[in-house]
């Protein structure tokens, strides 16, 4: 969830993500939000989507 919704401040009271992880969360979060926004607009994962950047695996069927 931190990759998609909220900010560091919104998640500080949760034990889900440690403070040292936030630089990676911020980087991967941007990539995840980009993939989801593209998918919402087009119904497809963009050909140039970088699965490694957001820690996901894409099944392009």
Automatic annotation (TrEMBL):
Protein name in the entry: Carboxylesterase/lipase family protein
Top-level taxon of the source organism: Bacteria
Native organism taxonomy: Bacteria, Bacillati, Actinomycetota, Actinomycetes, Micrococcales
